[in-house]
Every structure is written in C-alpha cells, then in structure tokens.
C-alpha cells in the first residue's frame, strides 16, 4: 500500500527542494517589499475586488523559472499562470503550488500583511509548505512529519476545544454576488452569536491560517479561496498539531477549508458555517454544496 506509486516517491527526502524554496521565498520577498511603497498598476481578474499587479506576475515568473532551471522535470500550479490560461492540473509529478503575493489587495493598499506562499506535492501529497509574511519578516514552514516552524522556532496550535473560547479567522474573499456575500456574512453572524471570543481577517488566507499554527487563533475557515492560497499553510497547521478538514477529508481543490486547534472546534464550525457553490479548482465532481453546511 505504501509502495511509491511513481518513481518520484522513491526520493523520500525533499529537504533540498524545501531549502531551495525557502531561499527563493526570501528573494521574492525582497522584490515585494521593494515594490510595496511604490505606485502600482492594478488590473482586475474575477471581480472588482480580485486584483493583480505587475509585481505578482513578475515574482511568479521569477520563482517558476528558478525552480524549473534546478528541477526541469517538476510541474507548477501558479496563481497568475493559471489566470493567464495555463491548465490547473494536479498530477503525481513533483508539483510546486505558488501564490506569488497572497494578499494583493493589501499589497495595493500598503496594508502590511502580504505573503509568498509555496507548497510542494508529490503523488498529490504535500511534502512541505512555506509562507513568508514579508512586512512582518515571518517565515512559516513545515515539512511532512517534521514539525512546523516560525523563523526556526517550533509552532504548536492552542489545543482549544471550546468554540466559545475561540478566536476564529476567516476571509470575505473577492466574491461580490449576493449569494456569496449573504452566505459569508451570515456565517460570521452565527459564529458571533455562539458566541466566540472574536472573528478576524488579515486579508491573506495564508497568513490567516498560519495564526492557527501559532496558537494566536484557534480556527480558520474559508469558502471560495483557491488551492494556491492555502496549500502551504494547510501543512503548516497540520504539522503544528492542528486539524485541517472540510466536510470530511481536506481537499485543497474543493475551495473550502476548515483549520482548527482541535477536531471538536472543527466540527462545531462545520455545523455553523455554510458554503456557497464554488467551481472546484480541478479534479472530482463540480463543486456541489449549494448553501449546505460545510
Ligand atoms: O491576494 P490573492 O493571492 O488573490 O489571495 C487572496 C484572495 O484573492 C482573496 O479572495 C482572499 O480573501 C484572500 O484571503 C486571499 O489571500
Ligand atoms: Mg492568494
Ligand atoms: Mg496571489
């Protein structure tokens, strides 16, 4: 059952790729910070709140070309490459899942939470994740089975089991249609009425989710994000002892996620939070879940 399904899995240790990914994330952060206070040319993607800048595109190209030069056989899923028409397909091949700037709205507004998010999968299993919160200079990373770290210090979730003692992080993404907005705002209303201690949103899914790994938040949920927003932070939460789920198994392509300090908190959130229909990023049946509980 555990025999490698492809020759790639025979190379059990991906530390060289992780170290290279971390060095690239630091390089990319320099480019993001150089542009952070400068005038930006902003383009729209899926909605008036889904922005992209030349820096997003340039950073992603830099990351992919550097990785391709070192690992020519590897595959890529990059937010801006997909936006430019590249196919979004996760295979068994070693794959880098890249969000060059997570929090582009923040980047455009100089709201100081922007991150580079890089995940790496083999046989569709995440081997490591890197989230670099550039302005904060906080490098989160995790390697499968080897723990989660913030600037080299080990991370552990809060372990909170009581939803009424939780700080919950979420995002109101780029959707501006009535169904999405009424679903998302009523989710926040129901959580606050439980009550929970607080609801927070930093404007970057990756950094939001890493707060669960630090114990600074106790849960995170999001509907409508994409695989590149959360692929890296998902393994960081899991390696910090947290739970990452959806209705059942976590499926990074489903565009729904719950990350929590404990399964009891994850279960409570899945009872309270409702989803709206989202087309899957790839694979499986088209996104169902029209407003049902997660
Ligand atoms: O900034 P990007 O990479 O586009 O990702 C954000 C997404 O676009 C928003 O819809 C979400 O609300 C944010 O949490 C993501 O970080
Ligand atoms: Mg993103
Ligand atoms: Mg992005």
From TrEMBL:
It catalyses: a myo-inositol phosphate + H2O = myo-inositol + phosphate. Its EC number is 3.1.3.25. The keyword Signal applies. Mg(2+) binds at residues 79, 99, 101-102, 229. PROSITE patterns: IMP_1, IMP_2. Pfam families: Inositol_P. Keywords: Hydrolase, Magnesium, Metal-binding, Signal. One of its GO terms (biological process) is signal transduction. Coiled coil: none annotated. GO terms for molecular function: inositol monophosphate 1-phosphatase activity; metal ion binding. Pathway: Polyol metabolism; myo-inositol biosynthesis; myo-inositol from D-glucose 6-phosphate: step 2/2. Its cofactor is Mg(2+). CDD domains: IMPase. It is an enzyme of class 3 (hydrolase). Belongs to the inositol monophosphatase superfamily. This is Inositol-1-monophosphatase. The lineage of its organism: Eukaryota, Metazoa, Chordata, Craniata, Vertebrata.
